[in-house]
Amino acid sequence: MNAQTVLASSGDEFKAPGPELFEFPPLFAGGPEWLTKPVVFAVFGSLVVVVFFWSAFANPKLVPRGVQNLGEVGYMFVRDQIGRPFLGKNTDQWMPLLMSVFFLIWIWNIFAVVPIIQFPIASHIAFPAVLAASVYFIKIYLGIKHQGPVKYFTNMIPSGLPLPVYFLLVPIEYLSTFILAPFTHAVRLFANMFAGHTILAFFSLVGFWFLFEKPTVAGFSVGIIGVLVTIVMTAFELLIQFLQAFLFTMLAAMYIQSGLHAEH
């Protein structure tokens, strides 16, 4: 018996979760429109990262223990897997930024499976958009500073091509570099968190509906499937949350490097 048949037999309509999952009213009546749950927990996530690394490195010991040990593991991961492959000798200079971006996004993503919070902050486009824009402003600033205000823009275009080719290549290159690159940098993170949260909400609601809200003999198996899929998808989502933080920070390192040195 499929889910539609079960729903028909129960006499009630199951409504799948939709965009309303991402709509939050102000925290209190009459409060500012921007002061919502995602904003509060975005700030809370920032404080978690600050407190963790302050605890780890404010008074470092020669032999790391406890929080310092965890902090050094995180530092070495970001340095060896993200910083050095893309920034080389410039890695140490940019480690504070890379560490902050990676762990902030990771914490924001993990909030999706934390009880009570249960919402990935990066599934609101404003948050990844601000991070991506910040990284891109740094890239442009570094490019103009290290390559010059003229050469930075001309270095993006390969030399030695026939003149007619430049009429096509220049707009495409600048559109890709200044519009599409930061746009996809933000949207990749946003879209994955948005989709993952929607899927988790759907299957968890299926399990709750058929097992607790409107339990029926026919719907019991559907509810069990919903619970099992929720468990599997939660584990998968934890992996995606980590990977998206990694990819966002990796691209940030690439953009910074392209600002330090000409791309062509």
From TrEMBL:
Q: Which cellular component, as a GO term, is one annotated location?
A: plasma membrane
- Corresponding gene? atpB
- Per the similarity annotation, which family is this? Belongs to the ATPase A chain family.
Signal sequence coordinates? none
* Matching InterPro entries: ATP_synth_F0_asu, ATP_synth_F0_asu_AS, ATP_synth_F0_asu_bact/mt, F0_ATP_A_sf
Determine if Membrane is one of this entry's keywords.
Answer: yes
Q: Name one Pfam family in it.
A: ATP-synt_A
Q: What does this protein do?
A: Key component of the proton channel; it plays a direct role in the translocation of protons across the membrane.
* HAMAP family documented for this protein: ATP_synth_a_bact
Mainly resides where?
A: membrane
Annotated protein name in UniProt: ATP synthase subunit a
TM annotation in the entry: 39-58, 94-119, 125-144, 165-183, 189-210, 217-236
Keywords from UniProt, A to Z, are: ATP synthesis, Cell membrane, CF(0), Hydrogen ion transport, Hydrolase, Ion transport, Membrane, Transmembrane, Transmembrane helix, Transport
> Which is an annotated GO molecular function term of this record?
hydrolase activity
PROSITE patterns listed in its UniProt record: ATPASE_A
Bilayer topology term: Multi-pass membrane protein
Q: Which organism is it from?
A: Actinomadura spongiicola
